[in-house]
Design a protein that fits this description.
Layout (H helix, E strand, L loop, with lengths): L17 E9 L4 E10 L4 E5 L1 E2 L5 E3 L10 E3 L3
Parallel strand pairs: 3-6
Antiparallel strand pairs: 1-2, 2-3, 4-5
């Protein structure tokens, strides 16, 4: 699902520009994510966990490209 707020993940060669461990708020989805690995700073795209609640419990277990261009993964 592409919400239109950001562009979908583009194919190409990327370099990781930052990594953030731990739980953090994801405003576009009013949810939390963990283990962010940013690879496209122009589009704010990266790898991160499934969507989580404030306690770190999974609320949406869909993998792959189902967010604003980010790639959701299961375990860290």
């Amino acid at each position: 699902m592409n919400t239109g707020q950001y562009e979908s993940t583009q194919t190409g060669l990327y370099t990781v520009y930052n990594k953030i461990a731990g739980l953090q708020y994801d405003a576009p989805y009013d949810a939390y994510i963990s283990d962010w690995v940013g690879f496209d700073s122009n589009k704010d795209n990266g790898f991160h966990s499934f969507l989580l609640d404030k306690n770190g419990g999974v609320t949406d277990p869909r993998p792959g490209r189902v967010s604003n261009g980010c790639i959701r993964t299961g375990m860290s």
